[in-house]
């Protein structure tokens, strides 16, 4: 089933645009930078994908009023991942505008040593046949800082969810599937001093170990380090 598009918002009142942006591919860490410089930086983008299933038993007995919250346990994308996430719902909506809906959000609980992370996500409900249905997804990666959430204030109407004919609450259980793609930017500062050798007219070929005449002096990139070329 194709995912539905909807307005993406956060509980602090922010509404996101859904325009797509493109970014250039990362530099090859084992290649020299295209411009000679005394210092340069390589930013690695770590991409992690995961799925998280949250089941709420006896959902019809959730007595929370409008604006009140139910949260899942914390989860991360791996045993060594310091980013901690959770899902949160407002069973009777976040505010007056959404009181006829269930609101659903992804919350960054702890960002560890990082100042922020970016994530794309898709929420869906698993029906009685364990099929994904009523899916909604973000159209791009959104910026999360610690304590920030993004999601859908009007994820699904309560009357649709509670209707037994729709099979969305088998045995009075609400099962939410969250598919998550997390992007973490990891800048690596590299100090690579270059050495000019005035008056020299040959260079040493590091690969084959031969001397060549009438060639300019140039630095070589080997195992992330420039080599000093001596006359």
Automatic annotation (TrEMBL):
A Pfam family hit: MATH_2
Residue ranges of domain MATH in the record: 49-180
Region (Disordered): 1-25
Amino acid composition bias (Polar residues), ranges on this chain: 8-21
SMART domains cross-referenced by the UniProt entry: MATH
InterPro entries in alphabetical order: MATH/TRAF_dom, TRAF-like
Coiled coil (UniProt feature): none
Protein name as catalogued: MATH domain-containing protein
Lineage of producing organism: Eukaryota, Metazoa, Spiralia, Lophotrochozoa, Platyhelminthes
């Amino acid at each position: 089933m194709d995912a539905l598009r909807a307005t993406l918002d956060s509980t602090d009142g922010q509404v996101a645009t859904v325009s797509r942006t493109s970014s250039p591919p990362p530099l090859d860490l084992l290649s020299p930078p295209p411009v000679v410089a005394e210092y340069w930086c390589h930013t690695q983008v770590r991409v992690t994908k995961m799925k998280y299933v949250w089941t709420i038993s006896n959902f019809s007995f959730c007595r929370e009023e409008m604006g009140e919250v139910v949260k899942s346990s914390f989860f991360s994308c791996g045993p060594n991942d310091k980013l901690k996430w959770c899902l949160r719902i407002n069973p009777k909506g976040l505010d007056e505008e959404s009181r006829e809906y269930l609101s659903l959000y992804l919350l960054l609980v702890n960002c560890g040593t990082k100042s922020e992370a970016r994530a794309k996500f898709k929420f869906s409900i698993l029906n009685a046949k364990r099929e994904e249905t009523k899916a909604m997804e973000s159209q791009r990666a959104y910026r999360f800082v610690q304590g920030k959430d993004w999601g859908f204030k009007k994820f699904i109407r309560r009357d649709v969810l509670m209707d037994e004919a729709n099979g969305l609450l088998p045995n009075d259980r609400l099962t939410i599937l969250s598919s998550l793609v997390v992007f973490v930017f990891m800048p690596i500062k590299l100090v690579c001093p270059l050495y000019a050798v005035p008056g020299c007219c040959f260079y040493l070929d590091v690969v084959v170990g031969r001397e060549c005449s009438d060639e300019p002096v140039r630095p070589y990139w080997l195992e992330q380090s420039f080599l000093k070329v001596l006359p």
